[in-house]
Amino acid sequence: FSGADIENMVNEAALLAAKRNKEAVDQNCFDEAKDRVMMGPERRSLAISEEDKRVTAYHEAGHALLRHVIPENDPNYKSTIIPRGRALGVSMALPIQERRNFSKRYLLANIATALGGRVAEELIFGELTTGAQNDFEQATEMARKMVTQWGMSELGPLSFGKREEQIFLGKELAHHKDYSEKTAIEIDEAIRGIVMECYNKARHLLETYLDGLKKLADGLLERETLVAEEIEEILGPRPEISPI
Ligand code: ZN
Question: What is the pLDDT of residues 169-204, one digit of tens each?
Fold first, then answer.
């Protein structure tokens, strides 16, 4: 969050506390305010078919389950199928500490978890939906950085493509290609290789934990939102040894 985002969140939290006749601005108010600032208000009035609800529940359960069973991941914070902003559902992690440096294993775990939503839909319904667009963008972007900036692929410890970034806005202004067409193809292959490897791992894990996936999806359909403790209650303690 930027300073302005924080200010916005605190204002929202205060408004919510007043609206709910609370004597103090509590954690629930801040939690809701943070979600509003990040993703827009809840859209409970949105008409969603039972079928779409089920797909969303399995999609979010896929994310939450993989986050839970891959110990490199930050722990779950909550999963919900209440629509908010443009999303039909959300699953969130809560890092235990501020991260400044990311290991390859952490990144691979993140990519697999991002793909878990689509994999769960595919496993249960045998059908592909458009709901995973954002997940794919995230997964591909992470894999691209692993290959072109962080030297984490078979292309070796090289940096590809000089970037001019406007640090303040965090936006990429220009991308100078400083490699050959042949290398461009290798980069694309390496990115695809990472994403597909993570996809296959995600699929293998969800097949292994199919029972947990179903319980989690049922829990979401029943309660709409599951917080970290409820997810853990359904799935049991997190494994210590990484399945990846
Ligand atoms: Zn998703």
Answer: 556 656 667 889 999 999 999 999 999 999 999 999
State the angle between helix axes of 228-235 and 210-223 in degrees (0 to 180), rounded to the nearest 10: 140
CA pair distance 187, 156, nearest whole angstrom: 11
Cα 21 to averaged position of ligand 1 atoms, centre (Å)? 35
pLDDT bracket for residue 166 (50, 70, 90): low
**E strands in 42-190:** 76-80, 90-93, 162-166, 171-176
Task: Find the catalytic residue in 60, 121, 189, 224.
Answer: 60
- Examine the residue annotation and report whether 60 is marked as an active-site residue of this protein: yes
Q: How far apart are the first and last CA of the chain?
A: 32
Q: How far is CA 190 from CA 80, 88, 129, 208, in A?
A: 34, 32, 26, 27
pLDDT digits (tens, 9 = 90+) for 132-162: 999 999 999 999 999 999 999 999 999 998 7
